[in-house]
Amino acid sequence: MTLSPETEVLFDSHRGHQYNSANPPLYDSSTFHQRILGGATKYDYARSGNPNRQLLEEKLARLEGGTHAFAFASGIAAITAVFLSLKSGDHVILPDDVYGGTFRLTRQILNRFNIHFTIVDTTDIKNIQRAIRPEARLLYLETPSNPKFKITNIRLATELAHRHHIDVAVDNTFMTPLGQSPLQLGADIVIHSATKFLSGHSDLIAGAVIVNRNDLAEQLYLLQNGTGTALSAQDSWTLAKHLKTLPVRYNQSVANAHKVVQFLEQHPAVSEVYYPGNSDLHLSQARHGGAVLGFRLQDETRAQAFVDALTLPLVSVSLGGVETILSHPATMSHAAIPQEIREARQITWGLFRLSVGLEDPTELIADLNHALKEGCDD
Ligand SMILES: *Cc1c(COP(=O)(O)O)cnc(C)c1O
After folding, report:
1. 199 ligand 1 Cβ < 6 A
2. Tell me, what's the pLDDT at 177?
3. Which of 59, 227, 279, 293 is the most exposed place for a label (fewest CB within 10 A)?
């Protein structure tokens, strides 16, 4: 019987591990015995490959509908590998609200290697069209973006890019493989910060790249092994275990997020709510709106009073944990952006991002309601 990807991530006991244990053993070894000199062994050195990382990568490839997956020591290491498949002189098109760490990587590190980046608002395909140079090799997308949750049409952008022989990479961290499948929409490369929903327990840093082309897979393996940025056996083992509950965790978070969105949209202390589920374009390429949303307080000066009055959410960077995580873009993810640019992009003091977790939504909403009262009444 063929299992769905969601069910397949649950199964380990049928994979022929010794003793048929419910979970695979952790192969905590940097090196492997090679008694036949020059003979072929499946594994020789753990940077180049180890059973725990391979098992994880097989699960990630199945989940995302790709042929090959590569696990990295962080989301940024995964993104770096994708960019390092380029060469000096190549041109890349990036979205204007790309993840801050990706912006830093391109602006402060990769620009030293004569790789050129053009930053555009990718939500308008005409902007992408205008940015394409003869040396363009990669269109990099993030949809939904954050903290404003702007949506780019993956199908249209990919058709345009492919007409110019440009590969398309999509950072799919916010939607997970369950919410959106960029490879099926035509994209060539899918990237995840597995630190977020894929791991889900706020206990490790990891990243992944998934592709369905052999030439890209060969490049990515060369980069993963050759630059030594692969995920450790220990973290691969933990992440593979956390993946088993991804479907239940994520689906519950999405259901809870819908309730929180409905609540915030009618609350007088909230002036705006940003949620991908409110976009027809997003829903034409994704299965639902996901579990992360943005909102702005009517009285932006009350942001600290609002936070002070909250009990449940973890107030921090990151997202996708079992616990609800409230982030303050102006002082956290987007703090490095100069204030004028931040304000022009409406990343103001009263803007919050909420990654909805697994708490009882009634309790979470009661907590938010209480804090919003504190945050608006004098
Ligand atoms: C967190 C994040 C990253 C970076 O991942 P790390 O695991 O922190 O290196 C990249 N893209 C998005 C959208 C993220 O949220």
Report:
1. no
2. 98
3. 227
Neighbour tally for 284: CB within 10 Å: 12
Quote the radius of gyration of the chain (alpha carbons, Å): 21
Residues 6+ apart with CB under 8 A from 227: 80, 81, 84
327 lines ligand 1 (CB under 6 A): no
Distance between CA atoms of 224 and 86, rounded to whole angstroms?
Answer: 14
Closest atom, ligand 1, to C-alpha of 319: 15
Task: Give the Cα separation of 309 and 302 in Å (integer).
Answer: 11
Co-location of 70 and 9 in the same domain: yes
Cβ-based neighbours of 57, under 8 Å, separated by 6 or more = 68, 69, 70, 71, 208
Q: Is the CB of 332 under 6 A from ligand 1?
A: no
Tens of pLDDT, residue by residue over 47-96, are 999 999 999 999 999 999 999 999 999 999 999 999 999 999 999 999 99
Whether the model pTM is above 0.70: yes
CATH classification of the domain holding 368 = 3.90.1150.10
Domain count, the chain: 2
Kind plus residue range of the DSSP H or E element containing 115: none
Q: Domain of residue 318: give its range.
A: 246-376
> If you write DSSP's letter for every residue of 310-363 in order, what string do you get?
--SSEESS----SS-EEE-TTTTTTTTS-HHHHHHTT--TTEEEEE--SS-HHH
Q: Are residues 239 and 250 in the same domain?
A: no
From the CA of 193, how far away is ligand 1's center (Å)?
Answer: 4
pLDDT digits (tens, 9 = 90+) for 161-178: 999 999 999 999 999 999
**Catalytic site residues?**
47, 99, 171, 196
- Residue nearest atom 8 in ligand 1 by C-alpha distance: 75
